[in-house]
Amino acid sequence: MDRREFNKRMVMAGIGAGVGLAKGSKAMGGEKVGNYYEEPVKRLPIRKFDVVVAGGGTAGVVAALAAARQGAKTALIEVKGYPGGTVTEGGTALHSFYNLWKAFPGVKKRQVVKGIGQEIIERLMKVGGATGHAEMSKGYDFDSVCTAIDTEMYKLVTFEMLDEAGVFICVNTLLAGAIMESKRIKGVIAESRSGREAFYAKSFVDCTAYGDMCAYAGAEYTEPNDYPVVNSIGIANVSMEKYYEYLKSHYAVKQLAHGRRSGKDNQIVRLQGEAVKLPAGFSEEAAKIGMSTVTTTVHDDYFMFIKLNFKMAVSPTDRDAVSKAELELRKRQLKAVELFRQFVPGCEKAFIARTSPKLCIRRGRLIRCDYDISHEDVIEGRHFDDDVMVYGFHDFAPRFQIKDGGTYGIPYKALRVAGVENLLAAGMMITSDHRAHMSTRNTVGCMGQGQAAGTAAALCAQKKCGTRELRYGDLRNALEKGGVYFES
Ligand SMILES: Cc1cc2nc3c(=O)[nH]c(=O)nc-3n(C[C@H](O)[C@H](O)[C@H](O)COP(=O)(O)OP(=O)(O)OC[C@H]3O[C@@H](n4cnc5c(N)ncnc54)[C@H](O)[C@@H]3O)c2cc1C
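Above: the input record for the complex with flavin-adenine dinucleotide. Below: its predicted structure, written as tokens.
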């Protein structure tokens, strides 16, 4: 679906016409036109902020925290009942706070993403909600560390942090439209059971993963639909040690890390099997349901993540296709737990303890920004004169690694949404090149982008300027004060 088609659908759906149940709103019409019902125009209550962040997921939590800590009056609009997003629902571990030093003998170990992302991990450690940065002892040509989280603790800890920072948190609230004034967003429409409201602000950050705010603002985008969607599960009543023994008995241990688990150090926290070495009954059936053999955990007797992939024929912005995919994925989840019960000793009484509330995407809309990070930028380890963070992980490693176990830079221009004066994007919606995206989309990269976008949005609001007028020096100073690491 292109931008014109999206706009047509939105017009048909009445977006911008202002329909809702908000107190004080007033109906001004409404009639049937052919096969369409034309929604009545309504008067919506207005709330005013410096910064509005849409999407309280991996990038959005950090963006809202960064904006509020700069002193900006910040609102966060999140459709689910909690913050966290895909980091709590999709991925096995947070890739990666470190460079790939273990794969490059002689290269120095360095933590290359710090700032708010690291602060979240420290808060999680205090409540037993993370493994720490556990060093990989096998498979370290992929990532040198495994940083796994307790998904439920992540939701609580980030919720508390947002509250402490004074963010106006609107959960269970859908971003449903944008109010444009030429090339500026004047406000956005938020919809909840309290009704439809207009949120006015000076600067906006889109962290919805799907690029909803950008699309409503008329930004250009593509929808490559080049990735499977997933509904990952947590499986309880299992044993990491017995899964390890099972993999070992087939010479199939591909990845292994020991870290903090159920309050004890040096426990297995990450395992991946080499599917081809496993019995066909397990590996062939796993392949049919798109099941990955990788898992991580923070607790005894629990696999925090088992991923079930499904490749949709059309983009995950198609509601009807998504409904079918949701059912298919839930069928696959049951088959997955049955496979563990049947094949892996110690898992005979396994059951599904967690599912994601909805399927997770890896790429939805890809938003056109002032700069599109290329694969060469990533693997050559290029830096820019407007870097807002550095990053050293690639999901295709060891096939593609960042040169010499180093880092590349994410430039500020890669977050500025093309054609809109006061809108930044962060998270999986940037970077159109599939291979480059296999780096920039990962959780820790999204967190760093969130900190940069939230900080920049707050500074723009303070200085009453557009995103392109912000002086890089001011942004860099603020990011350094916020603990962001840069290669000197
Ligand atoms: C199955 C899977 C496995 C992965 N594995 C890993 C891994 O092991 N390690 C790793 O580092 N990365 C992994 N990734 C990648 C990484 O998890 C994601 O790319 C990253 O978390 C995306 O962050 P985000 O902030 O862009 O989006 P999200 O974290 O998804 O946040 C988007 C938020 O916006 C909200 N939202 C959306 N639309 C609206 C709207 N209209 N109104 C209000 N709110 C809205 C959503 O509810 C959500 O909370 C994986 C991804 C998937 C899907």
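Notes for the reader.
Residues 24 and 438 are 47 Å apart (CA to CA).
The pocket of flavin-adenine dinucleotide is lined by residues 54-60, 77-80, 85-87, 90-95, 174-175, 207-210, 212, 230, 232, 307, 360, 362, 427-428, 441-443, 446 (CB under 6 Å).
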